[in-house]
Amino acid sequence: QTLGSVNEKFSKTDENLRRLYIMSELRYDGQTVVVTGAGGGLGKAYATFYGSRGANVVVNDLGGSFKGEGKSTKAADVVVEEIKAAGGKAVANYDSVEDGEKIIETAIKAFGRIDILINNAGILRDISFKNMTDADWDLIYKVHVKGPYKCARAAWPYFRKQKYGRVINTASAAGLFGSFGQTNYSAAKLSQVGFTETLAKEGFKYNILCNVIAPIAASRMTETVMPPEVLELLKPDFVVPLVGVLTHSSNKHETGSIFEVGGGHIAKIRWQRAKGGLLKTGPSMTPGAVLKIWDNVKDYSKPSYPEGPADFMGLLEEAQKLPDNQP
Ligand code: NAD
């Protein structure tokens, strides 16, 4: 349907309603979506959403426990059947995201293309840092860092060639803010912010838009740490609409952004730089000189919002123009 036909339905004063109406009609016909870890939780919600809106869906899931033990084809198969029963198109893939190229190959073999990649698969190996083993650390790294890399790396040549791609990576509040007992997970999840921001910069001229979400949702990952009445407010379905908007072809500019999303709340998150203090570099840049400007270093009353390494370079020149620091 055209924008004109939508306009006929709503008067100009109903701008918000008109927008909502257009959004509710977002479709993905003819596009192929890969959702990793789509056998349950958030991944299942994404997969069934895209399946119900015309996309070809690759339902990837290793089918192991939430700690990353074992595997099974059942998790992915059940979701594929559900999508098909509702009239959608879907195929299963049972590989670990560590073998991302096999997952993308499934998309190409089954549907001949890949348009949207949702890097969602995840596990937990929560343990205090004192008791952390290399195995706990490495497994989290493999699933949450190497997996998204392998999937994106395999999809990238297709995205570039067709000058179209939409990627969602999955971070976590644990990565943004830290979380007791989750050093491995926090480190891996924050990596997705840097990964996404650089992918966004490299991809933009090829119309490849990449965003990262820090979701909160009821799933087997969270069901043991939150009470049932809270879980009820946090259905994975409430994360899906944002992902639907960001990965739709009507999104032409939103890229390299971090979103907090869950339970009806959606907000962008960004880095904030305090006022800061400048010191002349050289012998007079002593710890005592740092203490003299300490209040400015932590003064957030007039923040700035740096967006890249170049934002810092200008400050270097300014620092050079300063007189020597007073002892
Ligand atoms: P979930 O356990 O329900 O879903 C994760 C899925 O990934 C599972 O079906 C699992 O079998 C699959 N999986 C695990 N390892 C895999 C691998 N190597 N290859 C392929 N599939 C694999 O959990 P969820 O809550 O839906 O989590 C989805 C994503 O969201 C994860 O990346 C998680 O870290 C992140 N996340 C979730 C929350 C939350 O509140 N639920 C919060 C922050 C981040």
TrEMBL record:
- Compartments it resides in: Peroxisome
Subunit notes for this chain?
Answer: Monomer.
Entry similarity comment: Belongs to the short-chain dehydrogenases/reductases (SDR) family.
- Stated role: Second trifunctional enzyme acting on the beta-oxidation pathway for fatty acids, possessing hydratase-dehydrogenase-epimerase activities. Converts trans-2-enoyl-CoA via D-3-hydroxyacyl-CoA to 3-ketoacyl-CoA.
Q: What is this protein called?
A: Peroxisomal hydratase-dehydrogenase-epimerase
What organism does the UniProt record list as the source?
Answer: Gomphillus americanus
| First-to-last residue of the parent protein present | 187 to 513 of 1110
